[in-house]
Each structure stands twice: as C-alpha cells, then as structure tokens.
Predict the structure.
Amino acid sequence: VKVLWVYAHPEPRSLNGSLKTFALETLARAGGETQLSDLYAMKWNGAAGPDDFPQRDRSSRMQYMAASREAYESGTQSAEIEAEQKKLLWCDVVVLQFPLWWFSMPAILKGWVDRVFANGLAYGLTDAKWPGRSGRPLRYGDGVFQGRRAMLLVTTAGSESAMGSRGISGNIHDLLFPINHGILWYAGFTVVPPFLVLGTRDIRPERYNEITQALEKRLLEIARADPIPYRKQNAGDYDDGFELKPGLEGDSQGFGIHLRQMK
Amino acid sequence: VKVLWVYAHPEPRSLNGSLKTFALETLARAGGETQLSDLYAMKWNGAAGPDDFPQRDRSSRMQYMAASREAYESGTQSAEIEAEQKKLLWCDVVVLQFPLWWFSMPAILKGWVDRVFANGLAYGLTDAKWPGRSGRPLRYGDGVFQGRRAMLLVTTAGSESAMGSRGISGNIHDLLFPINHGILWYAGFTVVPPFLVLGTRDIRPERYNEITQALEKRLLEIARADPIPYRKQNAGDYDDGFELKPGLEGDSQGFGIHLRQMK
C-alpha cells in the first residue's frame, strides 16, 4: 500500500513526532511504500494567494477558484503545489496527522488543503450525464480521488468526557466533520475513522506503548477497515438542492443525518 | 464602540474587499473607532512555531502551550503577536471576516488565532475558587475577554439549501460552531450570530445593495444584539467532567445541546 503521510507539528521531539516516526517505520516493515510531507520542515506556505499562479496577469482581479482552475489545467501552478498533488495522485491512502489546535487543524495544514486541493482536482468537477446548466457536481463520494482512502491522526489534550457526545467542546467526531466530510469525502476519498489520542498532557511509557500498539493495528488494517458511512451525493439520497430527502435521517439530527443508517 | 476588524482575503478587488471597506466606513460614520488587521496585506505568518518565542532556548524541546505561557507572562512573545493582542484588548467588538474555504477559515486567519490567542490570555486560566488540583478552567463564557463581543462575517458560494439544516455540506451554523463556540466563546467573548452571505458566485448590484443595507443594520446594532445563547461552563450546566448534566438538552442533539433552551 502506498501511503502519503502529511504531518503538521513544529517540534520533532514531541508525541506527534514520535508517532510519525513509529507510523512510517511500521508501514515500511509491512512492505508499504511511504512519502512524507513534513509541513513545518518544508516551511510550507499556508496562505493561498496570487503567488500560487506565477504566470497569472496580476493587474486583473484574482478570483481564486477561477485562477486555480486555469493554472491547474494549463500546468502553471506553483511548483510546490504541483509536487503535493503528484503525491496525492500517487498514494492509495493519505493520512493527515496533527495536534488539534482550537478544535481544528493547525493553520499550516489548513493551508496545505487550501492550496493543494485545486479546482479541477478536488472540486469543480461536474458529471455531464446529470441534467442542469452545468451538470451535477462530482463530490461527496465522487471525484478524482474516488477509490483512495484517507484517515486523520489527531492528538489533543482534551479529555474523553469533554470531547464526548455530551462534552462541552462538542463531540470530537462532529468537530472533525468539516475535515472528514467537508474536505476528504468531498474530494472523493473513502474516509476511515480517525485515530484519536485524547488526554495527551502527561503520557507515560505504558500508555505510549498502548497507543503505538493500537496505531500499528489500525495502520495494518487501513486498506480494508470499514469507512465512515457518509452518504454519496449522487446516489439518490439528496434532491436537486442537495438537501437530504425527507425521512432518511431516522432519529438523527445535526451532522449525523449525513451518515447512512446502519441496520 | 471600538471595533477590531480582522480581514482575510487575498484580493482587494473582491466582494470581501468591498464589504470590508463598506463596513469600516459605516462604523466610522456612526462615530465608532476601528482598527484593521488585513492579514494578507500584513503578510501574516500563520505557522505557530518556535519563531513565536524569540528568546526561548531552542536546544530544549518546545511544548507550544507551555512556551506560549512563559513568553506571554514574561513579555517575550514575538512583536507581531503582541501587537495583535493589544488590538484585542483595546476593542469592544472583534469581527472576523473571511470567505469560507473548505468549510472553515482560510489558513492565514486560522494562523492568526493559533498564534495570537496565547496561553494566559485566551486559554489556560483557572479560577482558584473552584475545587480540584488546579481549579476549574475559566473558559466558555469566562476569561479575559468576558464583556467583549465577537461576530463572524462569512461569504460562501454555497447555497442556502446546501448549507441549511438538511443540506449536504452540513448546517452552516454547525460548521461555524468550532469557531464561534470553540474559539470565541471559549476565550470569553459574547458571540453574536454571524453575518452570512451565501451564494456569492454572481452578485448583481441590486443584491449587493441589499447585502450592504443588511450589514449596516447589523453593525449599528452589534453592541446590543442578542448573542448566540451558548451555555456557560461554570454556571451549573456542566459536571466536573465538563459533560452536560442529564436532561438539560431537551430534544436537541449534536452541537445544539450547548445552547440554552429558549422559553
């Protein structure tokens, strides 16, 4: 299995740094191929902007989505964006590893998504066989990355209780919905449940061993693990306004309505 | 009223650029004082890391939260972080204006939060009067920013239906919960409902006029508008594990349980 490991932590001598090294060694031992995007080590520039399109005429107003499409299709994106896209198109599985900062990704990783997930690659595709002015969009389970898998590896000092279904921070799975569903599933990836390490404030050797054992198991199963059962946009559950058809949600509310009901 | 306007868009000749200019003029006409943090114009560095603490010994392992606390308390943070914190402590109201990118903030704005919301200012505070090893944390309605207000101004190409309560992207208010509740309310701000501009793909002059009229109204009322009724952490609704006490949620699920029930 070919794995792209995208890693966003500023300190190599951290829990995240140790887990990253452990994961890459585990995958290699199992015969996998890996590529690493260590965003801090690469000094990744996270600010999507005019520098992403070096050949664009700067005297005209920039509409980022349109500029992204034109540069993607004409092969004139900045070189570092193209390099990351090549890694994404090479891999079978992408893992995004990060500490949860303010209930989301560190900015450097958000800026990797903002810039690398270009128009024409990760969004903006339409299916000509659907009716309408420009066709129904290929997203949420469809798209270029269909057939590839994605997983988040997230650490946080927050406790199980504070990040659970009644916890004050909001359920961690709901907090990750904008990433798992809004970025990865949107772009077509099959998303497997995140590997979570909660309560990271004081991790002793015994617990660290438990974490690495659990991580090893998850990594070795990643190609066949049951995915999060998000609904596909274009498989009949959503109407022409992209609203869930009446009754399909069962007893669910909130983001939960976008999960297929399990028997 | 003193307003800090934090603005994250790479193109001045955009809808966002026009709305930013309109808002600052409107506030000034009404006798308000404003400061602007135009993050792209400032070339804001979004990557929280060792450069935030120029006097720290780099040979030792950096734990970001601990380093942030030490630098905040000793007045040794990087100058650009300190300058933004001064603006936050000056203002009565902070507005974060941004286009919704991948269902969240652009990286440059996330990196403003990651770096400016320091330990000792926006988190890490405890109330000695609560029992327990280190006191109950002052957050979610308590903290340094208590008494100040915050609002998001968000634009998105997404439609009302796709971003509504049954829309495939998830309800826009739930998508903004990690920001409104997890960042602003966490740090103590009173959060008023966001000013949303949906369906931005093709805005004609007539609609632009409607938008600016509505925005003017919201800005002139911002100091007395009803806030989002988030529950305070330390007012009795949450137990010692920070879980909502049984029964308080009524019929709500998901993030909705953290809103006080209205009569």
